[in-house]
Design goal:
The protein is an all-beta fold. Helices cover 0% and strands 40% of the residues. It has a four-stranded antiparallel sheet with strand order 2-1-4-7, with no helix packed on it. Strands 3-8-5-6 form a four-stranded antiparallel sheet, with no helix packed on it. Strand 5 and strand 6 form a beta hairpin.
Length: 110
């Protein structure tokens, strides 16, 4: 039989990282590419409670805003007309879609 060593204090044990909170699912939007053709952008499992500026439409001087948001996540999302979650906003529940009249540059998931 081997001698047993004392167990370290729980306060000395490293904590395992917890998973970051995310809006599970996919968020889609339509945007105009530089060549003028339309494309679909996607955020997969986007972070919750963190503003996300959509990369394809981040620069107001170089691009039109995205439109037709499609919230396929399990979280409510607030879509903002401007980058950095500023400007006019609209809320989409899980599974909801916005029309092509709903313009956005950034989003914030619950």
């Amino acid at each position: 039989m081997l001698p047993s060593a004392p167990l370290p204090s729980p306060s000395l044990c490293p904590r395992l990282p917890t998973s970051a909170h995310a809006a599970n699912g996919e968020f889609r939007y339509t945007f105009a590419r530089v060549d003028g053709k339309t494309a679909t952008g996607k955020l997969i499992d986007p972070p919750s409670k963190e503003c996300v500026t959509l990369p394809e439409v981040a620069d107001e001087d170089a691009s039109a805003p995205a439109y037709s948001p499609d919230n396929r996540t399990k979280s409510t999302v607030v879509v903002f007309a401007d980058e950095d979650c500023e400007g006019n906003y609209y809320t989409l529940k899980p599974g909801a879609k916005g029309s092509e009249r709903l313009k956005l540059r950034s989003v914030l998931f619950s």
